[in-house]
Amino acid sequence: MIFQKLTDDEVLAELGGRLRRYRLQGNIRQAELARIAGISLRTLGNIERGKDVQLGTVIRILRALGRLDSLDAFLPEAGVSPMELLRSHGRSRQRAGGPRNG
């Protein structure tokens, strides 16, 4: 819940720092990780400094670090409430509803 109080730039800086720490824990040089991930050294440096990047780039880095499973913690599978399951007769939702007047 610490991220709730941070600005977007602060969250990016925190994520970049975490990726850097994962890299250092694995004793991997920036140039090597960039090569394995298929990104430029400059891009990796920007990410580690908290610059905004594409999600696909973060996925490449996580995969190269062997940490792709971190995405499950980042964005877990959305569950279905028991009441919603009853109302939908076991079918999953296909769209969001509009505002209800009532």
Task: State the main characteristics.
102 residues, 434 Repressor (Amino-terminal Domain)
Q: What does this protein look like?
A:
This protein is mainly α and 102 residues long. It has a single domain (2-74), classed as Orthogonal Bundle (434 Repressor (Amino-terminal Domain)). The chain contains 6 helices and no strands. It has helices at 8-25, 30-37, 41-48, 55-64, 70-74, 82-87. The two termini are 34 Å apart. The mean pLDDT is 87.
Structural class by helix and strand composition: mainly alpha
Number of domains: 1
Which shape, going by the Cα principal axes? elongated
* Strand percentage: under 5%
Per CATH, the superfamily is lambda repressor-like DNA-binding domains
Elements, N to C (H/E)? HHHHHH
CATH architecture label name: Orthogonal Bundle
Layout of strands and helices, then pairs:
Elements: H1 8-25, H2 30-37, H3 41-48, H4 55-64, H5 70-74, H6 82-87
Helix pairs in contact: 2-3, 2-4
Quick rundown:
By secondary structure, the protein is mostly helical.
